[in-house]
Amino acid sequence: MSHDTATNFYKMNFAMVQHHKWSMYDLENLIPFERQLYIDLLAQHVKAEQERIKDEMAVVRARNNRK
Questions:
Q1: pLDDT at 55 over 80
Q2: Entry pTM
Q3: What residues contact 30, with CB distance under 8 A and at least 6 apart?
Q4: Is residue 1 in a domain?
């Protein structure tokens, strides 16, 4: 579970509000399993975006090395 400690719970709330534009109202009104589902989906999305960026950077580096 992503918020197994009070510290992790508040860190996750902070990240979701600051970086992913959730509101505290929305977070506080999620059912616990619903909150976990959204956290898991968000983690998958972030991982996919990191992979996409990594792949794009590899293409750019390859292009620059050919010049």
A1: yes
A2: 0.73
A3: 38
A4: no
Residue 61 identity (one-letter amino acid):
R
3-state secondary structure the chain: CCCCCHHHHHHHHHHHHHHHCCCHHHHHCCCHHHHHHHHHHHHHHHHHHHHHHHHHHHHHHHHHHHC
Domain of 48, in residue numbers: 6-66
Within 8 A by CB and 6+ apart from 42, the residues are 16, 20
**C-alpha closest to that of 13 among 5, 23, 43, 4:** 23
Q: What is the pLDDT of residue 67?
A: 72
pLDDT digits (tens, 9 = 90+) for 1-40: 455 789 999 999 999 999 999 999 999 999 989 999 999 9
- As for how many domains the chain has, the answer is 1
